[in-house]
Amino acid sequence: MDISIWCLLVAFMMIYAPRMPAIRGVIEAEGRYDLANPRPQQARLTGRGARAQAAHENSLEAFAPFAAAVWVAHYGGTDAGLRDTLALVFVAARGLYILAYLNDLNPWRTVVWTIGIFSVIGLFVSPLF
């Protein structure tokens, strides 16, 4: 399996990285985590917990285009080195994005988000070159 496929697994797992700070935020604010109906609790989060929940949701939104772009690059015959590099850039950008979001580091959050989206666009168009 090539690096870009492994990056899919890593990116998928990174979706859930911000969940622990979000859950911690709920427990700190409300004393318990409601497993039966957690979304209302998550909607009431503020501060770092709210940012963690937002980072989780944004990671969910970013995963599908990345997965599709890796598929397009893979089956479109993109050079493996380019494909793997762009996938690694995406994973690194997403990791930095989560850290920037959790720590309220603007405009760095936007900068690394932009790097990530450009790597996805690069993967989509890479079979053209």
Query: At the first level of CATH, what is the class?
Result: Mainly Alpha
Shape: elongated
Low-confidence runs: none
Strand tally = 0
Radius of gyration: 16 Å
In which range does the helix fraction lie?
over 70%
Total number of distinct structural domains: 1
Largest sheet, in brief, is: none
Q: Give the name of the CATH superfamily.
A: Membrane associated eicosanoid/glutathione metabolism-like domain
CATH architectural name:
Up-down Bundle
The quaternary structure here is single chain
- Tally the helices: 6
- Which percent band covers the strand fraction? under 5%
Class computed from helices, strands and strand pairing: mainly alpha
- The average pLDDT is 97
Annotated CATH topology: Four Helix Bundle (Hemerythrin (Met), subunit A)
How far apart the termini lie comes to 23 Å
Question: What are the secondary-structure elements, in order, as H or E?
Answer: HHHHHH
Topology, element by element:
Layout: H1 3-14, H2 19-30, H3 38-43, H4 47-75, H5 80-102, H6 108-125
Helix pairs in contact: 1-4, 1-5, 2-4, 4-5, 4-6, 5-6
